[in-house]
Write a structure and sequence with these properties.
The protein is α/β, with parallel strands linked by helices. It contains 21 helices and 27 strands. The longest helix is centred in the C-terminal third of the chain and has 21 residues. The mean pLDDT is 91.
Length: 613
């Protein structure tokens, strides 16, 4: 999944769609395709690989029409090949769909459709959508009604764009949750649909951003917006500045806010091409690893700085718990001066958003000099940390402009989980049932993050209450202890509020002396194996006059009775809970800094990439 472009108007749709998809290439993809309504029937061209291959296919087999949709895809279900590339067409050839997101219940839907006689032509979850639309159209005779009924059947977060030869005068677009934005571009006698503004900025600067649970019917002359139940919506039309930097922010005030909201998409992209949900397996080809090599690994040292180091701390627990390999986490700036115990059976795993962090690169060289195996988890393709590593996992989150890392923090959490499952499988320490269960939990993550983002207003209310505090204490235990560190870091680096983080079990060893009414305590208390211990810490803090903000799982009556300040999160498998608990803390820090009128995207004294020691 990644980019969507649609066009309806008086011009040839094909070059408009291809050029729009090019402007979305920065998000990454492994296949591409487009569908155009030509002389009353739908023509499709699609291929694996880059857009240049699709363009070559279109040159060899031209298609022209005045309405069309296109897509660039990261594979999540099925290999990245032409058969699985979007768009997907129904059995009758009258309906075609492009889709961003994961259909969490696609296996159930697929089985039901097959039982009804539907033939599937791909391995994707997306194909279930077009067959459902086709099914409901047979009884309703309305494309809009068919899309509404289909959306009611889907679990997860989705951005969907549909076209039909039965109703050749319209495109229907819908957004449910936060799997991907849907932007409608408005112009004279033509209109556009896209997943991101850059795809359509050369044609218009007037745009409508669909909210979750909204759909748009786009014709050549007008756009009508409804909620998912069919009630008319009168959306705000936004005028986008031609300044490319301002335009990139779209509907958001700051890049950091935009990047927080992009995490449903970035996490879906992180899974793409690496997880086979049907087989319950993980594939990390870029690590160049086989069973024999995996079994020779005796120790992993994760080295990183700042936010990336906090991700590494979560990774330590994940790898040790799932793959049963000893793991150390070393701050990169200290690692190379510590004379580390490293040999040929040790992996040095570097985590870096930029891939150019000086201390992290130096730590990698220290590991290489001692004969270690070098791996990296990096966002910037082609960066030094990627080039010098023997194996690499690309974060696949796209550009991150805000200095305070958000989507480049949560993506490595999933990467490390994938790595743990992959190593455990290769080393034979989990069976197929355990592996399938671990992999199946991953399918839930994007929509769980989307649920957290839907609660932004409640976090904003808390930020308004606490924005004038000058000190905060963050507490966590176990797998969420590093998230306490990360939450405190986010607050201090963009709001300049002094924030400390501690393992909650260390409170009585000193930090408890700090607690009073002027020192709010943020307590990470999801329903995980450390829950009872965290309840005890909350009670101790409140007994000393502290004001507690809990991050807690939906429906927790005990937490509701203990404290008035709660950032609720949905129920999440505990090994993946750090991804979800991170979201309200990111939003909390962002809104405090924004309310204080600070430069959120470029905080003082900080840079995106630290290229000097």
């Amino acid at each position: 999944m990644c980019g969507i472009v649609g066009y309806i108007g008086g011009r040839d749709a094909t070059p408009i769609i291809l050029n729009g998809l090019k402007r979305l290439e920065y998000r990454g993809y492994d296949s591409a395709g487009l569908a155009v309504l030509e002389n009353g029937h739908i023509e499709i061209r699609r291929d694996a690989g880059k857009l240049s291959q699709l363009e070559a296919l279109v040159n060899d087999m031209p298609i022209k029409g005045k309405i069309g949709i296109g897509h660039t895809r990261w594979a999540t279900h099925g290999e990245p090949n032409a058969r699985n590339a979007h768009p997907h067409i129904g059995s009758t050839g009258d309906f075609v769909v492009v889709h961003n997101g994961i259909v969490e219940n696609y296996l159930t839907l697929r089985e039901e459709l097959i039982a009804e006689g539907t033939k599937f032509n791909s391995e994707t979850d997306t194909e279930t959508i077009v067959h459902l639309i086709e099914k409901y159209y047979a009884s309703s005779g309305s494309l809009v009604e068919s899309v509404k009924k289909t959306l009611a059947q889907l679990k997860g977060s989705h951005g969907i764009v549909v076209m039909s030869s039965k109703e050749p005068d319209k495109i229907v677009a819908a957004r449910v949750g936060n799997a991907g934005g849907v932007v409608i571009g408005l112009s004279e006698d033509e209109n556009f649909v896209a997943s991101d503004l850059p795809a359509i900025l050369e044609h218009t600067r007037r745009a409508i951003f669909l909210e979750s649970r909204q759909m748009a019917v786009v014709t050549r002359g007008e756009v009508a917006v409804y909620d998912i139940n069919g009630k008319d919506i009168h959306p705000q039309v936004q005028n986008i500045a031609w300044d490319p930097v301002a335009a990139e922010k779209g509907e958001y005030r700051h890049f950091m806010q935009k990047e927080i909201h992009e995490q449903v998409r970035s996490l879906t992209d992180t899974l793409a091409g690496r997880v086979d949900f049907d087989e319950g397996s993980v594939l990390l080809h870029e690590l160049n690893l086989d069973s024999d090599k995996a079994k020779r690994i005796q120790k992993i040292i994760i080295t990183a700085c700042g936010t990336a180091a906090h991700a590494g701390m979560v990774g330590k627990l994940l790898i040790e718990h799932i793959a049963r390999i000893p793991v150390e986490v070393a701050i990169a700036s200290e690692f190379r001066y510590a004379d580390p115990l490293v040999d040929k059976n040790t992996v040095v795993l570097a985590i870096s958003q930029s891939g150019e962090t000086a201390d992290t690169l130096a730590a990698m060289e220290e590991g290489r000099s001692k004969g270690a195996i070098l791996w990296s988890i990096v966002n910037a393709i082609g960066s030094q940390a990627m080039r010098i590593a023997e194996g690499c996992i690309a974060m696949q989150v796209g550009p991150e402009i805000g200095v305070a890392s958000t989507k480049a923090f949560t993506a490595p959490l999933l990467d490390l989980y994938l790595l743990a499952v992959y190593l455990a499988d290769l080393r034979g320490v989990i069976d197929s049932k355990q592996r399938y269960s671990l992999v199946n939990d991953l399918m839930l993550v994007p929509s769980l993050v989307g649920e957290c983002l839907d609660r932004e207003a409640a976090v904003l209310d808390l930020a308004k209450k606490f924005r004038h505090m000058r000190h905060m204490l963050y507490l966590g235990r176990g797998i969420n202890m590093p998230i306490a560190y990360e939450g405190a870091l986010k607050l201090k680096e963009i709001s300049y509020i002094h924030a400390e983080a501690y393992p909650a079990g260390e409170m009585k060893h000193g930090p408890i002396a700090l607690i009073d009414k002027s020192m709010p305590v943020v307590a990470l208390t999801p329903n995980d194996p450390w829950y009872d211990k965290m309840i005890s810490q909350i009670e101790q803090a409140m007994a000393r006059g502290g004001e507690v903000i809990a991050v807690a799982t939906d429906g927790d009556k005990l937490i509701r009775d203990l404290t008035d300040h709660i950032m609720w999160i949905p129920k999440t498998p505990w090994l993946l809970s750090p991804v979800v608990t991170s979201i309200p803390l990111q939003l909390f820090a962002y809104h405090i800094a924004s309310l204080l009128g600070l430069d959120v995207d470029q905080p003082r004294n900080l840079a995106k990439s630290v290229t000097v020691e």
